[in-house]
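QUALITY CONTROL LOG
STEP: pairwise intake check
CHECKER ROLE: data steward
CRITERIA: each record must contain a sequence immediately followed by its structure tokens, with no blank fields

ENTRY 1 OF 2
RESULT FIELD BELOW
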Amino acid sequence: MFNKFNRFYEKLTPATRKIITNTTWLYFDRIFGKGLALIISILVARYLGPTKLGSLSFALAIASLVGIVAKLGLDQLIVRDIVKEPENKDEILGTTFILKVFGGFISLFLTVGVVFLLRPQDRLTLWLAGIIAGGSIFLAFDVIEFWFESQVESKYTVIAKRGAYILTSLITILLVQFEASLLPFAGIRTLEAILIGVGLVSMFQTRHSLKAWRWNFKRGIALLKESWPLIFTSLAITIYMRVDTIMLWEITGDDSVGVYSAAVKISEAWYFIATSLVASVFPSIVKAKEVNEKLYYKKLQQLFNLMALIGYVIAIPMTFFSTPLVLLLYGPNYLDSGNILAVHIWAALFAFMGVVQIPWNITEGLTKLYLARTLVGMLSNVVLNIFLIPLYQGLGAAIATVISYAVSGFFANLFDPRTRKIFKLQAKSLIFLK
């Protein structure tokens, strides 16, 4: 068996072998990381109960929503530019790092301001959100992760991130054992960001030097001009991924948010499959575009086909076994999470479609179209939540999420001549037509 695999592996091109190795590392990272994260989240949810979990989830939702500013839409632009201009990597990394540090501070101040406006008398939530948002500043070190991604060498980021997460997971277990208050659970988020930053720097320094990084004003302005649609796109994505939690709290309170968050944690745990695979093949898709248009779209079709298959394999069993799974993991206090999970899990199928399209939007220079598509999904989610949450509470929020993901990740492509080609690729993948 192993000999056959080795013979098959040796026949592959060096580039293909590198992608397979990189993807393997990424999946190990995500499977190990998501698996551990799910275990820790279950432990925390059981300890805190729905109400306290709802308070923490609300703070996380606000911090995630506003925290998207810290990334400035630069993540995939870094990969693209380094692939195209490897000789300017130090300028690209240095410029992007400074921009992201600045974005992190803006994110922190905005998060505190938003929570103060929404809950002016709630000091606990203000502290929770502020502590979590503090970690946004250290996200600037993610530029190192994207450097390794551009080189298809994600194993270095896996080592750095998993080391940090194992340590913070152990601390979280201790917090549960010693019956800590809510604030230390928020502090774990910031501590993890700091440790990841230290780990990434250590990995980078073994092969390169941070001292070579340099700031270039013109490049910084050029990046911001190109990234602003991606900033608003990422913001729109985060809004329609987190607005349900915020609106659910506004309409029903912390308890419903806790029940809903427990289901969403399981549902969204699968999203790493699409993001990991796309992260590995993104450089090859950029290169395929430069070589041959037919090969370029063939790679995209294959990727859509794979993501659709994985989406169905996940969603169908979860639909029927969601309630027993929730009871097993979270206990009877979270019984209502079962029905929510059975519906919310179908959002993964359309989320996968949307993630695969991102490299196409960036490669084609259609980031504004991506923004428009995402805004449509965001608005549909907000409108649907307004009508469905009062009627069905958490289940209504789940229904709104699935429909809005389908609108943004699939149906919106039908209404623009430039994206109809992508709509056809997606439609073929969803009905198993090659």
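ENTRY 2 OF 2
RESULT FIELD BELOW
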Amino acid sequence: MFEKCPGAANIQTPTLEIKRCPECGKEVEIFSTDLKVTCNICGFTVYNDVESCVQWCKYAEKCIGKDFYQSLKNKDKRNE
């Protein structure tokens, strides 16, 4: 991985975000590296809106690692 890519900061150093479950409205904790989490109250799957340089940067795979890169790219294909 590269050392200081500003575009991948939230991926290399995960941040915690609080979202609302679209099904029941309760708070759900999701890290910037999570693609999805399950609501502890109703079981609904809450997806993370991972929008970053990973979609366009030619160094993304080297920057964040092959496995995480592939999981994000597969997510993009499912959303098409």
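INTAKE CHECK: passed for both entries
DESCRIPTIVE NOTE, ENTRY 2: The first strand starts at residue 16 and ends at 20.
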